[in-house]
Amino acid sequence: MKVDERRCIGCRACSAISRSISISEDAGIRSITFHSHDESLTERLIEACPAGAISSGITAESITLTFRMKRCSVCGEPFATEREIEHVASLIPETHKNWLDLCPECRRAEQRRSHAWHCIRIRGRV
Amino acid sequence: MRMTARIPTVCPYCAVGCGFYITRNGMEYMQDHPVNEGALCPKGNAALDVLNHVDRLRYPMMRIGDDWIRVSWSEALDRVAEEMQRALREKGPGALAFLGSAKCTNEENYIFQKIARLMGTNSIDNSARRCHSPTIIALRRMLGTPAMTNPVSDLALSDCIFIIGSNLAENHPVVARWILRAKDRGAAVIVADPRVTPTAWLADLHLQLNPGTDIALINGMINVILNEGLENSSFIKERTSGFEGLDLSDYTPERVSSITGLRAGDIVRAARLYAKAGASSIVYCMGITQHSCGTENVTACANLALVCGHVGRPGAGILPLRGQNNVQGACDMGALADFYPGWRSVDDSRAIDELRRLWNARALPLGRGLTADMMPEADLRFLYVMGEDIVNSHPAVSRRRERLKRGFMVVQDIFMTDTARIADLVLPAAAWAEKEGTFTSTERRVQWVSRAREAPGEARPDLWILSEVAARLGFDLSPEPEEVLAEINQAVPAYRGISRSNAGARGGIIWPCPHPDHPGTPVLHTERFSTPDGRARISPVHHPALERTSPQHPLILITGRVVLHYNAGSMSMRSEGLVKREPEIRIDVHPEDAARFGVADGDAVMIETRWGRARARAKLTPRQKRGTLFMPFHFPETNLVASEIIDEKSMMPELKVAACRIWRAD
Amino acid sequence: MGKIYLDPERCIGCRSCEVACEREHGHPRISVDKVKDLAAVPVYCHQCDTAPCAAVCYTGSLRLDGDMVVFDPDLCTLCGLCFVACPFGAIELDSVIHRCDLCGGTPVCVMTCPTEALQLEDIDAITGSTRSRAAGVLAARVRV
After folding, report:
1. Which residues of chain B have pLDDT under 50?
2. Interface test with B, best of C24, C37, C109, C137 (most B CBs within 10 A)
3. B310/chain C closest Cα distance in angstroms
4. Pick the CATH number of C3-143 from 3.10.560.10, 3.30.70.20, 3.40.50.10580, 1.10.10.10
5. Spatial CA neighbour of B576 closest among A99, C19, C81
C-alpha cells in the first residue's frame, strides 16, 4: 500500500486495523509509522481512510508521517492533529466552531459552566 | 438457593433504607419503593461489589503468634465460649465487653445483647454512640420516643425545611429528592452549616455559622419567635410542659450574631420563615450531635419545634437522619450500654424485670456498662466485636487499639478489617444479602431482607454463629430469624405486631406497630407524646462557653463525610468504582487561610491537634468557612487528629470541632 | 423517544449516574463534575439534531435516526473524528467508542438519579413541566 502524505490527516483509523501501522504522540506531535506490510489488508485500509490517502502499490521502506497537534486553548493539552481539526471543521454545518479550540475535557467543563450559570449566580449570593 | 429472577433487598449502606432488587447477575431498580422510588446513590449502585469480593473472609481463623491458622467452626465456637466463660470465672462480668453492629439485623443484635446480659454485663455498645447517642438521650427525655417523628417522604409536604448540621445531599442523597419536591411547591429551605456543601446549594437561606454555635442560633431564633408572638400558644399550653422555664431574653439577634458570626437580619429571617410556615420540619445530623454539647444541641432543636407546634402533623416534625442501615434497629434492640431492648433504661429495675421474666433469667445487670470509648481503658479479659471496625470508627479506640487486646478478642465480620487484624479469633460472617432478617431504617421503617446470594466459603449468618456460641454457654437461643422476631414482638413494645409478613411487604412497616393488623405509624405524636404525662418537655439549654482556638492551634477542624465513601471504608474502599472517584484523603482549606500558612492547592500538609498529627493533601476552596478546615473521616488519618472531648450525657466524642494548626509537609 | 434532560438546580453531584452507567456499560458515558463548588453538572450525549459526530462519520457508523443519534459498532473504524467533533466532549475513545445511547430506551442514570435531576422526556413535556413548576413556586411565594 501507499500513503499520500499530503492527504493524510493523522487520524487513528489505519493504525486500528493493521498492526504494521503504529501511532504515537510526544511533545505535541503525533507520529504514524507505516512499516512494510501485509498487503491483504490494503483493501480495508483504503476503505477505512477518511481522507482517501491510501492507495494500492508497493512501498518498500517504512515511512513515518508526523503531524503537529492542536493544543487546547484552555489547558494546553494536545488532543487532535491540526489536520484532523481542519477536516472536522470543513464537514460540520455550524457557523460557530470556537469549541474546536478546546480539548474534550475542557469542552465538558465549558458545557457545565454554561448549563449551571444561573444556579451559580443564585447560590453565590445565598 | 432460590432461582427466582429478582430478590427484593434493602441497601446495606446508610439508614435511608432504599430498596432495590438483586438479580442473578446484578441489580435492578425498585421503582415502587416508597422512599427511593427506584433511585440509588453511588454507594447503593456499588453495593453488590461487597458480595463476591476477593477479600471476603471465608474461614474461621485463629491467631498463633503473627500467623493466622484456619480452624474449623466447632473449634472456633468452642474457643469463643471457653474464653468468655474463663473471663467470667476469673474476673467477673465486668471483664466482658461486646460491640454490636449497626449493620447486622435486628434479630442478630437482639440475640447479641441477650447473650451479654445473660452473662451479666451491660457492656454492649454500637456505633450509635458516635452518631446519634445525643438524639437518643434528648428526644427520649423530651418526646418520649428516641426517633425521627415523621417519614422522609413527608418532607415533600413541608412549607419550610430547616436543615442544621446535615450534609444530606452527600450522605443521604435520596432525602434530597423529597426536599426538592417541597421546593417545587414553593417551600423555603434554610441550611445551617459552616461549610458551603451540596446541601447548602438547595438553600434559600444559608446560615454559615461558626462551628459549635448551634444552640446560640436556635435560641436566637426562639427569642425572635417569642418577641414577635409567632409561637404556637395553644400547642404549648395543651401539649407541652416546661415552657415557663424558657428564658432566652439574652439571645438577642445582636448577641447571637456575635457568637455565630451570622448577620442579625438572617437570624430573624430564619426564625420568621420557620415559625410562620404552615408545616415546618427540622432535619439534623452529625453537625448537631457530634459535639461535647451534643445532647444540648438536640434539645435546642426539639425546643424550637415544640415552641412552634411543628411536631405531630404531616410535614411538621423533627428528623434526625440516622447513619447506618440498621443503627435504629440495633438501638431498638438494646445493643447499647445504657438501654435494654425496647428503650428500657439500664437504671429502670422494674422495666428490666419484664425482660428477666421473658428470658427466664435469675437476674439481669443494672447500671450503664462500658461504652465503646471506655473499652480500651477498662480491664477487659474478653471482647467480642460483631460487624464493627472499631479501630477505624472511633478516634479514642484508634489511638489505643493495642489495649483492646489485653484479653481475648473475637471479631466477627465480612472482611479482615483493621480491627479483625488485631483479634485472636476471626469469624467469617455472611453479608446482608446472604442471610435473612429485618433492618430498621432512620424513619422507623422495618423491612425484611431475603437471602439473594450464597455466602462465600464457610461464612455463616451472624445469627447462626451467635446461637452456636449461646448453646455452648448453656443458652438455648434460636438461629431462625422468624423465631427471634417472634420473641422481639414480646420484648420490644413498638415491634409487637411485626412479622416477616408485614416487614416483607413492599416498604415494610413503620413502628410502632402494636398488633399484626396495625398499618404502622409513620407520623408520631399526633395526639400525645410518649412521655409519662403525654406532654413534650421543653428544656432550656444554653450556649456553652467552650475554649476553642488558641494561638498555638488557631484553626478549627471539622470532620465529616463525602458522598462516595462510607464511614470507616471497609465496604466502600473495596469498590473500585467508588475508590477511583475519591481515592485519597484531602483537607479543605479556605484560600485566605492557606495563604496565611503558606499552603498551595495540592500541597501535602500536616495537620496537628492536641491529640495527634496527620498528613493530607490540601484542597483550596472558598466554600470552606474561613478559620475552619474539613477532613473526611473515611480515611484513617482523620482519627489521628479527632477530638476525644466527650459529651458526658451521651458519651459522644466531639468529632465536629478540634482546634488545630497546619503547615506544609516536606 | 425522549431525550435525557438535566435540571441543574437538582443535581447534587453525587455521581450515582456515573457509577450506574459504568456498572452497566463497563465505561461511563456520563461525566459529572462540580463548577466552582457551587453546582454540579453531568455531561452526556445530547443526541443533537444536527450532530457534528454524524456529519464527520464517513462510514455511517454514527448517524441521525429520527431524533436520536445511533451508533453501529460494526461500521466504526476507530478513526476518532467523532471524539474531535463533539462540541460537548461527550464521546470517549479507547478500544471502542463510548457514547450514551439511552441504554436502548430506559436510561439507568435517569432511573437512579436520587434527585430526579435527569429525566427522560420529550421536549414539550419538559418545557411544559418547567413552566408550571416555576409558576407554582412564584404563586407560593406571592401567597407568603
Report:
1. 1-2
2. C37
3. 18
4. 3.30.70.20
5. C19
